[in-house]
Amino acid sequence: MTTDDRTDGQQAPTPLSNASAPAIVDTLAYPISPDYVKSWTPVRGLCELIANALDEDHDANVAWADGVLRIADDGPGIPEEGLILGYSTKTNAQIGQFGEGKKLACLILARSPGVGAVRCETVGYGFVPTVERRRLLGGLIPSRSEQGAEVLVYNLYRTDRTRGTVITVECPKELADEAIGRFRALSEPGYAPPAMPGTCVLTGDPGRVWIGGVLVTTVPGFLASYDLPLDDKALQNRDRTVIEAGALRDAVRAILAASDAPPVVDRFAAHVLAGEKLREAEQFFSGVILPRARAAWRTWGRAHLPAQTFYTSPGNEEAALDLKDNGFAEVTARGLAAHHQRALMDLLGVEIAHTRQRRHYEKTRDKTTWVPERKLTQEQHTALATATQLVRRGIGSFALDQVRVYAESESSPCADGFYNPRSGAVAVHVDALADRSRLLEILLHEAAHRVAHLGGGRWAPRWDYGDRCRGFEEVLGDFAALLLGYLADGAKLPDAVETPNNEPPASRVHRSGADDPAVPVTRRELAHLLIERLPHALTAGGFADAKDMVASTAVHADFWRTLTNPKPAGFRAQMGRGRAWDYDKTSLLADAVGVHSPVVWLAYNLCEGSMYARRREQWGQPGPWAKQMREVTLRACADLDALGGAYAAQVPALRALLTGQTPAPTGDDCWQAPARTLLALERHRLGLDAQPA
After folding, report:
1. Three-state DSSP state, 84
2. Residue 338, SS3?
3. Please, which residues have CB within 8 angstroms of residue 37's CB and are 6 or more apart in sequence?
4. The sheet that has 417-420: what strands, in order across it?
5. Distance between terminal CA atoms of the chain?
6. pLDDT in tens, 246-289
7. Neighbouring-strand partners of residue 126
8. pTM, to two decimals
9. What is the DSSP letter of 274?
10. Which of 69, 70, 66, 68 is nearest to 13 (CA)?
11. Cα separation, 109 vs 196, whole angstroms
């Protein structure tokens, strides 16, 4: 496909009208007035002829030279039916639609004064379209004038052509260039019409809208251009000059919402965050639901926005001021309506001010600056050890376990100390070590919290162990009575007897799913693979921790928790938690950690094959697996085929499971061998294990 860009105009053109005229053997008159489709221009007519050629031959040659535009294809030619107005065999894979384009194009070009002769040569015949004045049916029909009416006439002649069609049109170069410029296939080598939902085009002038690579309209104010698939050609009018506004809006939003191309995300994100506005059709943020598209937006946000950000909406002004005082940066998109701004910020991972403020204080409220034991002076160390031993002797060894020293804390401590119910430890401020009386007071106070919470000696655990609670105050009173009793009796404090820490009940011991025998072995092996691979993934991706890595994918953290702390087969929970079913979301996490996507999905979900979408009493019974299970597993198989080698070698065994050819009983896991083999291959590829057998 070429165009001749010569503009010197030095060589004299050789118009077709000066070439030897063919011998006309017949004529075909169309009773169409030259005034029909008045809005059509010569450019529109040329576009129809070019479109027909491209429909027949993707490599059609379109070139202008010496005053003549030549449109040649290597198709089968124009059959007799192709001369009938309205007859069409075009499909959704072709540009044409109504069977009118070529006929109307010939009419337009024949009537246009700036266009010379038009000639079409195809298999076995050719024709020259002209506008002639004729009496129809030999004058049998009454006429308003004795001269007849002007109609489109094909003057037909014979050719010896056996393949293809060549159309030549005498026209100015500017006219030809404008028509050629409307086809992406003629200016972009290797162009192919886009699949659904279409393509966002960032090169060239924005606002152009193509359907299947054919320019239909230009919309001022668009930030990008759009190429809709040929399936959408019904959205345009019959003249291919207008797309209904609502249909165009939906098509553009679908293209943008589905795009995960970094340049597209960058253009729109940078535009709206700079405070610029968008046309309604390009306000698509609430429609971004595909996992990879969401991940692309989250990746952009992490790369281009400060680490600590927030956005503000009405009613959040006070929270915004507080966050700014704490070093947070505000992100705005003032050109968007409130609901579009919310959707955009969600894509970028930016929280609204009051939410970000709450998270900030939840994260920092227990922040404590600890003083390592080696940093204590000898006097401080002695004072702490002596005071701790006195409390243990007076109350019991269970009264205090670990005692730590801190310099600063945001844990709302009781004066100069606090008790941590999660660890059972007591903390005391470093300044209190200089005052023996104050130090003993703090340790007794916090010991009362600990004993009321955990129990010990003659005290049973209480639920009300906090400050100003009855349970705590009763224990603190008991402490005072006990110590006063020693004083009144003149008795020495007993020696501290070390007793083992109270072990939690066996029922409260939490076993990780990665080591739980009730969990299928493939899930356990996958969990260990991901956990072992995690440190490398964090280093390679520059992530602070696993939470940071998962956040970069815009996938809910439950997916990662499920993969690394798996559940038994058949586990079902509300809201779908405890499952990692979605292939796209699982793939994003697999990519982040550096493991092949189909391996991760199959290792976790294959064990569900004979259970999925079946009643419990039908689990493990023979027969094909459920449709959705088959579809997603086949998708994983296609990815294994793409990996090739030993990975692709597991596909036949997986297909046999899908069809029910290989039994999959619930009491046996030997049929899950393909998933275990894939895990072994991954461990070897990642250097985590020896060569698999």
Report:
1. coil
2. helix
3. 104, 107, 108, 239
4. 368-370, 403-409, 425-429, 417-420
5. 54
6. 999 999 999 999 999 999 999 999 999 999 999 999 999 999 99
7. 121, 157
8. 0.70
9. T
10. 66
11. 34
